[in-house]
Write a structure and sequence with these properties.
mainly alpha, elongated, three-stranded antiparallel β-sheet, 9 helices, 201 residues
Length: 201
Amino acid sequence: MESLSPLSPLSQRFILHFGEMGSRWGINRTVGQMYALLYVLGKPLNADEIAELLAFSRSNVSMGLKELQAWRLVKLMHKPGDRRDYFEPPKDIWEIFKALLEERRRREIEPTLSMLRDALLESPASEEDRLAQERMREMYQLIELSSSWFDDVQRLSPETLASLMKMGSGVGKLLDFRDTFRFGGKEKTSNVTKRAAKKAS
């Protein structure tokens, strides 16, 4: 096996930090560091190379790669004349971002929606249960709305998504402007016109 160059201090710092952050996103520290290594080096690596660079056991690397594949954060590839499996992350940073969000939703949001649906189908046995269901219904509707919004975002091209995010608060202003015409816009316009006419007189 070709000898690998040691990681630079900059790369090491990134990898360590990403491992810590990954644990907060639902990815364990080892898996987070493995992903960061593949991302920052920008080239496919096999399991032995990952184990050598990170000083991890081969078994931990194997389990970590299965986890990364389940999250769709790495893809399997092969090199001509080499029977070993190589792994690399998606090249598009937006694809990585959307894969993380999708997996978090599958693991955390969908089970919550399922539980709330079951709870709302039950007949309330008391006034306390009826009030509790009303609160649950509000939560269900909010989560479902957010989930629908996420589906719409997933269908956007990376270019459109980037443009939308760059707009920042401009999105809110655009929606406010639209709602002026959709909900009571005529009344508001009329009031503005009356005030302008009064000033003019």
